[in-house]
Amino acid sequence: MSEIYFDHAATTPIRPEVFDAMLPFLKEGYGNPSSIYEIARTSKKALERARDQVATALGAQPGEIFFTGSGTEADNWAIRGVAELLKPKGNHIITTAIEHHAVLHTCEYLAKNGYEITYLPVDDQGIISLEDLEKAIRPETILITVMAANNEIGTLQPIEEIGRIAKERKILFHTDAVQAVGHIPINVSKMGIDLLSLSAHKLYGPKGVGVLYCKKGVALKSFIHGGGQERGRRAGTENVAGIVALGTAIELAVSELEEEAARLSVLRNKVIDGILEQIPHTRLNGHKTLRLPNNANVSFSFIEGESLLLLLDMKGIFASSGSACTSGSLDPSHVLLAIGLPHETAHGSLRITLGRSSTDEQIEYFLKELPAIVTRLRDMSPLYEDFLKRRA
Amino acid sequence: MLYSDKVMDHFMNPRNVGEIDDPSGVGTVGNVKCGDIMKVYLKIEDNSGVVEDAKFKTFGCGAAVATSSMATEMIKGKTIQEALEITNKTVMEALDGLPPIKVHCSCLAEEALHAALWDYATKRGIEITGLKPPVSDIGEHENVMAY
Predict the structure, then answer these.
(1) pLDDT of residue B140
(2) Does domain A16-253 have CATH number 1.10.600.10?
(3) Do A385 and B34 touch (CB under 8 A)?
(4) Residues of chain A contacting residue B67, judged by C-beta atoms under 8 Å apart
């Protein structure tokens, strides 16, 4: 079997329609949207059409859409932009223990600069408690930032309820929806979202382009200074081809969402059930149903994730893990630790994220190859040896 | 992250995986927290002091498996004094290098060999010149939960 790409949460390939849409703007459509002549006007029109497409996909107004260089930039901008502007009002931000590093490290930066951060814990499925959220709110709370869907375990947060609480308490609400948009329904007005971050390359668009949705009337400090692009709020000549691609990608993703989510959740369940039924000493990480349709995350006792990934790679299967070795530090994933996994179980996690290319046959092949790989690593593991001796 | 061909070879085809019945010395180093545990078994001929056999079991990443494999390969047939010359550097060199964040795996391999030699020396009541007690020998490590 040719390569099997099971890492769609890391990035997605550019789909053909998106590639076709962006290509002219890498070639003859090179005009700078800020200029006056014809090719510039073409670029400007394409830019504004993409803005409309993004706005429609989110249930927002075009004037509320700001293009950025990445989802990470959008997260940084939203959090720092609110925090620095509202400092006279308060210095307290509420987030969760399982956010992406784009949010967590921005909060840590702010914590070093006079802000106070509350990291809401999550339960063993990875979901925050609304009661905890209400209790954490103080008079000086200026922002709640909670991700819509977790990148590692796929857990969905009660975004609409968080939006309602934020509105009642007159606190701004930001959500990192990088993994959610195009995968689950998101509507900013219905969900009471004031600020939202998304990224093109998670929905079959190119890398290097993101969006910050900023609700009309929400003031935000800018921090890329220069020309007057993006209504003076985010300087820098626009990545026209990337933005056009994002517009097409998000429109397609949202129009196909219902059908694709239904198809993927069947495949996802097949992955989860297939692993849990075939391989002993295995657990599902995250919530069984309140999770992204394409995300399966499991832990195998006694083995380490990077070894697992290397052996899967040899079989042409590309996946991801929350082990320390794959995070580039000595600690395993903060998300897996936050849902209460012991270190060794967090090290032995495997994330499978499906996408448009995923088929039933691929999953059958994966489920056929996996047990022997796990057995091979367990036979090599001193932890498994001890376990068997204790059980004997 | 890029592993050398040698690392990949020792990961894909690890030498000396397993246990030794009635070993002369056993050393277990590392911890589950950082995700690497190496257990090395040695069979040492008492009269000659030659390491006749070495086996390992490792819980860890590709580099951890490859360094265990290489380190056990290197110690076989060596006298105890020669074995002490195996360091994380020599293991790393034999593997054509490791990515910077994986250097600690080679340190663990050196420690595992030393811990097994220390265990041997302790059991036999002998002193091995130049061998220091292992810093991270965890012996019978804490029970690991199974799902």
Answers:
(1) 45
(2) no
(3) no
(4) none
